[in-house]
């Protein structure tokens, strides 16, 4: 008998489909409605950091150069107080086979899929990750399907995502281009069922473990060349995997004192599932529309428990504006000779004002770059913004209004970051954890887990729970 | 652009995945009003006119039916025209760097 393919029926089969397509039963890690053994889940991949490095070396992933941005550092020092302006380094992740750090994520997933004998891999993503999965699948001669959100209901596509469709197809992947909506995941589940492919989720432990190597490489490269660890590591933050994996890698390398700073493009006010807002965004990733909801409720993804848990690792979270990222993309190309991004330059835009906080002998690492191409380029994206009614002008970036205006700074000194309260996000996470699970009371184990997952103290977790009317048993 | 495909041609089809009433209940108003649509590429199993229903075999080997929209679909996205707000930036900052160097 044919299976019911309605939205409700497929979503109801979600757990069953995931279990089959991930080759891992998450139930073994779960101890309560909220609590689960995170570290056991992360090591549940069965791959050590060393093994992952070996897997990545075999497919030409990782060991990317760490470049010193001398001219940008000089410009920072001109605007900083005397003796200030840390050296800015960038990890040139665009050098990976498909052009971004996402190859690190895909490499472990596809190695695993091949080892377990899956005929192919599927990912639901409109980002660089699609190309990474497609490229890794090509190397292992596995089938590949990428499901992307590309068009609004007028069939107008985001230029950045159209380029990502092209790239996936270039690597031989089947791409399904969709209109706006979270049912992207419904279709992905349906296709997993139809094809028996591996669920190369961005949020599985395989994917996130694959990013850890970037953190260890940063620590090793900084020590070898400068004899010290970076003071700040600035990481573009969207779904949380980049922050989580990099921070875990830094810790594994013993770089405990490096401050982990997440950076997102501020898209406050634009609804991520809105057909109308879709083409009023000039960034389709690295923005607050993913950064905030995924940090404050990670378990909203296509795996039962998300391996990307950024609140555990972020020491600071800052935002920059769209105009600042486009400006910095132009700066990197014209004064450093590095044409990259734009979305991957979110962390670079943040690193510039952040470097001015530190003395000259410190190091700030910008943790990634990504390839650029037609559509995925400031000219294409700003032209598109204008055609969709968004004002583009030069001025004070503080006047930037997401979806309405993109203000390109008039001067380098105008680059700034806005600090986001992590304390508020931690509280919001606790509220989501209890409300989404419909809990009126929790036990001590759940409190301990909430404390680890939010990085709030046990006392603070209890206080927040009390405010939300949730009792603590025992 | 050809208005007709023959068997074996590389084509793109369009299909509705979910009609508005079949969609997730958790959608903003504007999205809830429109269907979830898909565009998929593959080799046509038969000849057809643009606008007609046709079956294709995709790169992953699946067969899918939908309305034929294009034969030999390609990409026309570009780097876009010059953006006047961006073009002066490099020159501005290189001048600053030069001045800093001259002052030593």
Explain what this protein looks like in three dimensions.
The complex is a heterodimer of chains A (474) and B (104). With 474 residues, chain A is α/β, with parallel strands linked by helices. Among the domains of chain A are: 55-97 and 208-274 and 281-420, 3-Layer(aba) Sandwich (Rossmann fold), CATH 3.40.50.1100; 422-472. Chain A contains 19 helices and 15 strands. Chain A has helices at 7-12, 14-22, 38-43, 49-58, 70-79, 102-115, 128-139, 159-170, 184-195, 205-226, 241-252, 275-278, 288-296, 322-336, 346-355, 378-387, 422-436, 444-454, 458-467, and strands at residues 66-68, 87-91, 120-124, 143-151, 174-179, 198-199, 232-236, 259-265, 316-320, 363-366, 391-395, 405-409, 418-420, 441-442, 471-472. In chain A, the strands form four sheets. In chain A, strands 1-2-10-7-8-9-13 form a seven-stranded mixed β-sheet, with helices on both faces. Chain A has a four-stranded parallel β-sheet with strand order 5-4-3-6, sandwiched between helices. In chain A, helix 11 (241-252) links the parallel strand 7 and strand 8 (259-265). Chain B has 104 residues and is an alpha+beta fold. Chain B has a single domain (1-73), classed as SH3 type barrels, CATH 2.30.30. Chain B contains two helices and six strands; from the N terminus they run ββαββββα. Chain B has helices at 29-32, 89-103, and strands spanning 4-5, 10-18, 36-44, 48-49, 53-57, 63-71. In chain B, the strands form two sheets. Chain B has a four-stranded antiparallel beta barrel. Chain B is elongated, with a radius of gyration of 24 Å. The interface between A and B is large, with 64 and 42 residues. Strand 5 of chain A pairs antiparallel with strand 3 (36-44) of chain B.
């Amino acid at each position: 008998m044919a299976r019911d393919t309605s939205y409700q029926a497929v979503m109801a089969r979600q757990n069953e489909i995931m279990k089959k397509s991930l080759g891992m039963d998450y139930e073994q890690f779960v101890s309560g409605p909220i609590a689960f053994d995170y570290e056991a889940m992360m090591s549940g991949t069965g791959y050590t950091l060393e093994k992952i490095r070996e897997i990545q070396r075999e497919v030409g992933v990782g060991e990317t150069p760490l470049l010193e941005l001398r001219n940008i550092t000089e410009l920072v020092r001109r605007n900083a107080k005397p003796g200030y302006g840390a050296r800015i380094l960038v990890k040139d992740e665009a050098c990976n086979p498909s052009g971004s750090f996402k190859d690190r994520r895909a490499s472990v997933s596809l190695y695993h899929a091949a080892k377990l004998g899956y005929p192919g891999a599927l990912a639901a993503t409109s980002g660089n990750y699609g190309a990474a999965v497609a490229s890794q699948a090509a190397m292992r001669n596995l089938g590949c399907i990428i499901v992307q959100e590309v068009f609004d209901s007028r069939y107008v596509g985001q230029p950045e995502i159209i380029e990502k469709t092209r790239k996936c197809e270039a690597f031989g992947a089947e791409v399904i281009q969709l209109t706006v909506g979270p049912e992207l995941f419904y279709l992905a589940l349906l296709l997993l069922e139809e094809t028996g492919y591996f669920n190369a989720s961005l949020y599985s432990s395989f994917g996130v473990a694959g990013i850890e190597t970037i953190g260890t490489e940063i620590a090793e490269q900084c020590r070898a060349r400068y004899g010290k660890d970076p003071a700040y590591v600035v990481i573009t933050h969207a779904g949380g995997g980049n922050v989580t994996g990099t921070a875990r890698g830094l810790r594994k390398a013993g770089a405990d004192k490096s401050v982990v700073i997440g950076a997102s493009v501020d898209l406050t006010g634009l609804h991520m599932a809105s057909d109308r807002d879709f083409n009023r965004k000039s960034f389709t990733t690295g923005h607050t529309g993913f950064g905030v909801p995924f940090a404050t409720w990670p378990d909203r993804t296509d795996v039962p428990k998300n391996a990307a848990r950024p609140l555990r690792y972020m020491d600071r979270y800052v935002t920059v504006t769209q105009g600042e990222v486009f400006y910095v993309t132009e700066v990197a190309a014209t004064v450093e000779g590095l044409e990259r991004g734009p979305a991957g330059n979110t962390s670079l835009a943040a690193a510039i004002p952040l470097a001015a906080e530190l003395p000259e002998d410190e190091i700030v690492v910008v943790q990634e770059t990504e390839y650029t191409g037609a559509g995925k380029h400031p000219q294409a994206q700003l032209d598109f913004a204008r055609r969709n009614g968004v004002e583009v002008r030069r001025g004070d970036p503080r006047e930037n209004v997401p979806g309405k205006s993109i203000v390109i700074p008039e001067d380098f000194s105008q680059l700034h970051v806005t600090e986001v309260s992590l304390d508020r996000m931690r509280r919001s996470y606790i509220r989501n954890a209890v409300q989404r699970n419909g809990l009126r009371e929790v036990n001590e184990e759940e409190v301990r887990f909430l404390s680890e997952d939010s990085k709030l103290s046990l006392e603070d977790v209890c206080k927040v729970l009390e405010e939300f009317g949730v009792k603590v048993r025992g | 652009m050809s208005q007709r495909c023959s068997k074996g041609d590389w084509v793109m089809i369009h299909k509705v995945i979910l009609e508005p009433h079949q969609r997730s209940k958790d959608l903003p108003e504007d999205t809830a009003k429109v269907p979830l649509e898909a565009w998929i590429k593959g080799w046509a199993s038969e000849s057809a006119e643009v606008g007609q229903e046709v079956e294709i075999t995709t790169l992953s080997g699946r067969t899918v039916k939908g309305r034929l929209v294009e034969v030999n679909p390609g990409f026309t996205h570009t780097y876009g025209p010059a953006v006047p707000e961006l073009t002066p930036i490099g020159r501005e900052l290189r001048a600053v760097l030069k001045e800093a160097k001259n002052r030593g």
